[in-house]
Amino acid sequence: MIRYPYSGTGFGAWKDRLAGRDPAFLVELFRRMLRIRLIEEEIERRYRQDHMKTPIHLVIGQEATSVGCCAAMRVTDLAYTSHRTHGVYLAKGGDLKAMLSEMHCRIDGCAGSRGGSMHLIDFSVGMAGSSALVAGSVPIATGAALAAKMQGADRVVAVFFGEAATEQGVVSESLNFATLKRLPIVFFCENNFYSVQSPLAVRQADRDLTRWAEAHALPAVRVDGMNVLEVYDASKRAIESARDGDGPSFIEARVYRYRAHGGNGDDSATGYRDVAEREAWEKLCPVQGLYGLLKGAGMLDDARRKAMHDAIVRETMEAFEHALAAPHPVEGDLYMHVYAD
Fold it and tell me: For the purposes of burial, counting CB atoms within 10 Å of the CB of 53, is it exposed (0-12), middle (13-18) or buried (19 or more)?
């Protein structure tokens, strides 16, 4: 049974909407999504080797949300995420070697071997932090937006969270506070319909997340999270609005994770979702969908895609080699990043 069918329109209508768009930019969107997909597939392949001493939450199937929103942001803008971090970290420009070192608990990891997959950070590109707690990053990001406004900084904050986060009171409070203070923040909800193995229907029966957000008196829009162009356009409008001083916005992107909530592989066989549902969404692959559109428009071809693929694979292999060769923390490192009077 397909409980959550795809409700988007696909890329068909976009064939006539590419005019005036920079082909190089569109191809770069594809490359960024392909890069996230290939890196995560290699993480998944190696995970059973047990060298990565961290839980993982893959974004395979959700690449368009990370890439589409981050492409509309500046390096100086800040991104916060939930526990599903890899996509935003990489799309924001985070260092891959530092990410894999972190996942292998090496001292040169992006969080100094203290955070693992769920706590990636890279201030140099505006990847400001994440939280393993459901909705944990939302109030922190709201505070960062308040700081930006108080400082008069030309900076926008985007915070990514799943639909289950909207069940936490702190999210309502954050939306309300951001609206009252007209903060420069974009609340980006990646609605993949499942919290661990609990379907949305048994948690929020008949609840319309976009209408719920609008009740906090801020603009809210629902987009096709499998279409990076639709995500980018909506994100660009929201970010420009925040930068212009018009306050916060809410984006609900309907997406689908192809893998388990956590770990590697697919857990659909446990019965919480039908394998047929996952297979139906896999046919809507955001990476392949954009490739088909760009190929049909003469902007990309198989040879160029293969060259991208091979370059990303080489980069990924080198990053894994770096992580496995990097030094482990030693006892003295325990006192790093510890602050006390």
Answer: exposed
d(CA 204, CA 320): 41
Q: How far apart are CA 49 and CA 47, in angstroms?
A: 5
Torsion angles phi and psi, residue 154, rounded to 5: -85, 75
Q: Phi and psi (nearest 5°) for 319?
A: -65, -40
pLDDT digits (tens, 9 = 90+) for 74-116: 999 999 999 999 999 999 999 999 999 999 999 999 999 999 9
Q: Which of 155, 38, 136, 139 has its CA nearest to residue 87?
A: 38
**CB atoms inside a 10 Å sphere around CB 96:** 21
What does the alpha-carbon distance between residue 124 and residue 162 come to, in Å, rounded to a whole number?
A: 25
CB 80 within 8 A of CB 130: yes
Hunting for tokens 């932090």 — which residue is that? 129
Indicate the helix (H) or strand (E) that contains 187: strand 185-191
Per-residue pLDDT band for 1 (boundaries 50, 70, 90) equals confident
Please indicate, yes or no, whether the overall pTM of this predicted structure exceeds 0.90.
Answer: yes
Q: Is-contact 95 323, C-beta < 8 A?
A: no
| Separation between Cα atoms, residue 30 and residue 38, nearest integer Å | 12
Which of 81, 66, 253 has the alpha carbon at shortest distance from 157? 81
- Structure confidence by residue, pLDDT tens digits, 165-219: 999 999 999 999 999 999 999 999 999 999 988 888 888 777 899 999 999 999 9
Contacts of 135 by beta carbon, 8 Å cutoff, 6+ apart: 82, 161, 165, 166, 168, 170, 171
